[in-house]
Amino acid sequence: MQPTLSVQNLSIEYQARRGRVQAIRNVSFDVDKGEALALIGESGSGKTTLGLGIVQLLPGTAKITQGTAVYHRNGKTFDTLKLKGKALREFRWKECAMVFQSALNSLNPVLRIADQFADTSKAHGYVQGRALEERARQLLAFVRLDPERVWKAFPHELSGGMRQRILIALGLLLEPQLLILDEPTTALDILTQRNIMDVLKELRQRLEFSLIFISHDLSLAAELADRVATVYAGKIVETADVVALFKEPTHPYTIGLINAVPTLRGAQEDLTSIPGSPPDLIELPTGCKFHPRCPLADARCQATEPELEEIKFGHQVACWNWQSAREALGKIKTGYVTRDA
Length: 341
Ligand SMILES: Nc1ncnc2c1ncn2[C@@H]1O[C@H](COP(=O)(O)OP(=O)(O)OP(=O)(O)O)[C@@H](O)[C@H]1O
Ligand SMILES: [Mg+2]
Known about the structure:
By secondary structure, the chain is an alpha/beta fold. The protein has 12 helices and 12 strands. Helix 3 packs across helix 4 (129-142) and helix 4 (129-142) packs across helix 6. The structure holds adenosine-5'-triphosphate and magnesium ion. The site of adenosine-5'-triphosphate has 17 residues, from strand 1, strand 2 and helix 1.
């Protein structure tokens, strides 16, 4: 079966005053039908850029320098990066919807929720009137909002968590096959975050869309994703099935991320953070971009950047020293993975 989305050798740069920011560097991955892929990485690693690239919403200073993003549905296949005009507009809502990181402010403040749904529907030639209201109310119930309460409300009358759920419902209105969620819970308090995660899990079971879930929070990825890709300095450095990634993390960066996650049971002293900070994407380090922060770095790591290699079926790592990494970097807490292993 063809994947819903297949990104191949994608590179994206920004033109900044200081020079070219290499935000995405030769990234390839597939998202299968119904699959949830989590993209995990520190701030500035390029996660949002990747999402914006796929839906062609990058700012004017950005340039896709190479690559393809081939989308597939019911026998139709096209490169989303080449879409223009009407085809692009249709792709954005009917095939692929993205809920942005700063989404809490992206509802139109002067429109009631009912009108936000009507506008979106109208702009894309989707159902109107009763049929629309029925569909919208069903989606609102799916995201655990009381349709009676929110239908006639203005955005400012609703809490951040409610607005976020409205945006998710709106994103699903035209029945897209692929949903991209960029840090959907970051601005929210912990209980609201919990609630949105539960909503997302339920929605996936009900509607069976594919999902790209962007987050810096590994524990959220563990809950929702089937597969995880860790992104460092614009490149995927490890990807595996979610259970394998938490049981057998292999790239020193992934191991560092996991060791930096607090657990309820773990003692505070057990927490280690990754030393140093992410690199300047204008003047990238030589060799492996993680080497200045990596306890295992040697001369080869300084000289040559490793490519992803398959170390087990479905588990790929870009590290010269992957064979010794897990042992060398020691204790890895996986206690918070909530799925059945
Ligand atoms: N418009 C822009 N012009 C120049 N550089 C940019 C622009 N937008 C982003 N960048 C740079 O590109 C890199 C990747 O940014 P991006 O927002 O994709 O990261 P991110 O992983 O989403 O981070 P965060 O977790 O903070 O959201 C960063 O170094 C950022 O500074
Ligand atoms: Mg981002």
